[in-house]
Amino acid sequence: MIRAVMVMNTQGKPRLAKFYDSVPVDKQQELIRSVFGVLCSRAENVSNFVEADSIFGPDSRLVYKHYATLYFLAMLDLIQVLVETLDKCFKNVCELDLVFNYSKIHTILDEIFFGGQVLETSSTEVMKAVEEISKLESASNSITLSQVCFWLAGSIACVFR
Amino acid sequence: MAGGVSSSSYYSSSIMETLFQRTLEDLIKGLRLQLIGESAFVSKAIEEIRREVKSTDPHTKSTALQKLSYLASLHFHDMSWAAFHVVEVMSSSRFSHKRIGYHAASLSFHDDTPVLLLITNQLRKDLASTNEFEVSLALECLSRISTPDLARDLTPEIFTLLSTTKIFVRKKAISVVLRVFAKYPDAVRVCFKRLVENLDNSDPQILAAVVGVFCELASQDPGSYLPLAPEFYRILVDSKNNWVLIKVLKIFAKLAPLEPRLAKRVVEPICDHMRRTGAKSLMFECIRTVVSSFSEYESAVKLAVVKIRELLVDDDPNLKYLGLQALSVIAPKHLWAVLENKEVVIKWLSDEDPNIKLECLRLVMAMVSESNVVEISRVLVTYSLKSDPGFCNEILGSILCTCSRNAYEIIVDFDWYVSLLGEMSRIPHCQKGDEIENQLIDMGMRVKDVRPELLQVARGLLIDPALLGNPFLHRILAAAAWVSGEYIEFSRNPFELMEALLQPRTSLLPLSVRAVYIHSAFKVLIFCLHSYILQSESMTSSFPDNLVLGVSELVLKRNMLEGSDLTTCEAPSAHCSEGFNPSNQSYEDLSIENGGDRTINHGQTSTPAFSENIFTYDSIINLINQVELALGPFTGSHDAEVFERTRHILCFIELIKGEITECLVQKGKTLESEEMKASKIIKLISDAFSEELGPVSVSAQQRVPIPEGLLLKENLDDLETICADFQVPASNLFSLGSPYYGEEVGVSPFGLQNKEESEPSNEATSLLTEHRKLHGLYYLAPEKNEIVGNDYPPANEPKLQVNPKNDTEDLVKLTVQSLATNKKPNHAKTRPVVVKLDEGDLVTITAKRPETKDDLVSGAVREVLVGSDTRTATSQRNPSDKSSSKRSKRKGKEKLNVDCSELKENLGDSEKLKHENPSSRKNKHSINGKERRHKSTGKIGEEGEENGQKGKQKSSHRHARHKASHRADAPLNVVSQTPVIPDFLL
């Protein structure tokens, strides 16, 4: 089960946070802080797993990725799917895209993860769904894509058990 | 600016509100500008939102809610106050509003949110919507916030969606089932068959979703899903989707250990995947499955180890790490796999990645054995000096843990280990003080052969003033101080130790440790005084004694003569060791079992240790003065321990000082002739201190007889209800404490005494049994009372000799007899005796597994799959379920249209299944009805049968028949019922 998905920048500011257990907000903040604490203490080019028992309780593990390099393991694959989708959706995704497109990002996230389970691993399928949902929404809401682009500097983390 | 306008326009028309409302984007931009600081900005925004969300205009309201969700999600602002507005927005007819509402609900609702009661109908409506995206919203929300009530009420809708043709909705409906089952186990009876049918679906999305659900379900209780093994097997062989394969592998990893025949069948396909796949994730999952669940299959393990090797030499740190992890899983069963990769493991001990280092450390520790522990520990300790503090402590911790495992199982050379502990204590980053403290004391009590070395190590730690400044070492120093007091008889220079215990820098110690220091100083003082008195006594009697000394004691004799010579030169001499003195008989008696130690001590004292005379008049007086001086300030201490111990020692000095000085003034005169009060006191206290402290079992209390006249039952009777489920904490601590345990251990009839003593012990036993019968409640659970290496005496046994005025004659008799039967330790043994106490006891306490909903789910699943009579158990266990299921049925009936007639029938079935005494005919009928219906369910079901696949469909039918016939006979026991696997696999 996936317990939480987080995207944060290099300063530890959360850009996306979704918890699949019910966690009170102050606890969420604390968790994100401690995750950032763990992540920023880790050197580059080390493995992407952290045993997160101390933060999330027994048997949980934190898989994270600084967005740049490619790895091929299941959880990392998922993060890859998420980033790929974001990339397709925003044509070279950057932090600002995440900042400004709160609603759309949640749509994407909800298509991939569903109640702590992985629902979809193909970014094309996710894109299809997201586009249709956007069309439905566009009746009243227009999403403006930010044209400013700088590379997403930060990390995406999934905590799962 | 927009905010200002909107606040002023609060009472104006809704159009104005909409026009001037700050959108989410405005909010984000404002936050980024941070003109007035983030928290001020946020609270201002919240204020706005509070106003806007009350608006009658749906757009204004939903935008406000969206902003609130954003702030709650990323700025951790509480939004529970807006719960009712969330419900309002959820019910909006416009999709974009509805979406915002649902998002807010899944973000902020939890089990205790009061408005949850209001959304059931909304969810039901949206679940039945023709717009698949609306259905999807409702499903997503349900997957996050579902409660038992919601799950129960919406089960019919989910059942319908499980076979919808819209893939987009169906996969979500499949996933949501997991949450629904967890919240409302009775839903299994309704939905499980449809869920299983989806395993046959050819659509990859559906398959991925359903396999994911089964993976989660099987991880909770794999046994219930054994009957589905053929389905999973088919997927394992046929599927091309790595994600699905990984999930199926996870399922098999759980199922295989339960059913060896299944393991035999699937091991080959798994190996095929391992060989063929190019995806590292799938390969790793294959490896993990094999090493964790198929470790008996030699060829599979060999293949896995080859693949692990590939991972280990990869450049990617993730793969390295995973390879190492797989190795550590397999290490306990196939150590050769680790040994084969020894070089790599040791090489990466110095990797930059902390994960990899840690994993390597674990593997290195897995390789430790009796023969290489010295070598490996040496290497690791050296390495820890170069590591960062965190890893250094990991290393020390794992050495400590490995070496102390199972009462120091792998340690042969205890002297080495004790000095290693001393060395560890001096490592700058060492933070393992508590553990080292425990082990130092523990070994002192368990392994008596190590005591001389232990004292040396303790001395080394105590006399180093630099160590006192390191707070992490304080616990170790406490242990060292305790050791120095307790085993002072092995010391070559007690005065030096006394100085160390009283050095000024001890003021850096916490008071609790100082108390130990002071008490140890007391012990040392007593030892010195006692030795001095003995020596003085011997001076008068040594000549005649020495003349009759045996040839074997030549060395001693020589020393004595030297001593005597010196005595004549007005420089009293002695050899402090108790073993030395022939007139020391009374002392010797006190601790007969100490004979072994004495022997060692003889050897030591005859070496240059005491070539100088240390117990002189001056040295003793100096010692007393030194103690008085150093402890004086503590008489005003506020710490009870420190204060009391100081008072003890100072009062004692007060008591003896006069006489000591007096008698010492007339040195050379015989002391024994004068029946001195002081020397008597000293002897008595010394006797008390020379009492040997052994380890005390946690279950020692059990052996304590209740004193006469103590009426336990009367007052505590009503505690029975409270204490009924009380369990002993499984701590492995040994009390250092009260010598009174000794008496009781002595009386214990279990295990300690031999047959000769059966007479008196019988009496005690019968008394005990009687008492046990009467007060059984207050006894702890019976233990396996084994003392390994039982040539070591039980804790504090000789106490009785010291203090023979015991209440009961029985005790004396028993103890004398048990002493008589004690054997002396055999020093020819290479490994010293290590006392173990009822180790088994500590492990056997297992937590009672509470009955969870998982059990209910599994029960229901078993019922559906196997058709066992689990249902009786389930419904009995949870009578409320029955009524709830009835309710859901009723509701279902109300709501269901023609499409759902099937469901109605099904619900009816589940209802019927619940009857306690069904007539066989009736049931057969209902089962048949179910079967017929199944055949007409649709293509999927038919295909399954037509293909002649002995898949789930068929098997479940067979089981259904089973069920019917079983039920006709008699209700079956749940536990004895094992799931049946179709012949296909066997």
From TrEMBL, chain A:
<dbReference type="GO" id="GO:0006886">
    <property type="term" value="P:intracellular protein transport"/>
</dbReference>
<keyword id="KW-0472">Membrane</keyword>
<dbReference type="InterPro" id="IPR000804">
    <property type="entry name" value="Clathrin_sm-chain_CS"/>
</dbReference>
<dbReference type="Pfam" id="PF01217">
    <property type="entry name" value="Clat_adaptor_s"/>
</dbReference>
<dbReference type="GO" id="GO:0016192">
    <property type="term" value="P:vesicle-mediated transport"/>
</dbReference>
<protein>
    <recommendedName>
        <fullName>AP complex subunit sigma</fullName>
    </recommendedName>
</protein>
<feature type="domain" description="AP complex mu/sigma subunit">
    <location>
        <begin position="1"/>
        <end position="136"/>
    </location>
</feature>
<dbReference type="GO" id="GO:0012505">
    <property type="term" value="C:endomembrane system"/>
</dbReference>
<dbReference type="InterPro" id="IPR016635">
    <property type="entry name" value="AP_complex_ssu"/>
</dbReference>
<dbReference type="InterPro" id="IPR022775">
    <property type="entry name" value="AP_mu_sigma_su"/>
</dbReference>
<comment type="similarity">
    <text>Belongs to the adaptor complexes small subunit family.</text>
</comment>
<keyword id="KW-0813">Transport</keyword>
<keyword id="KW-0653">Protein transport</keyword>
<dbReference type="GO" id="GO:0030117">
    <property type="term" value="C:membrane coat"/>
</dbReference>
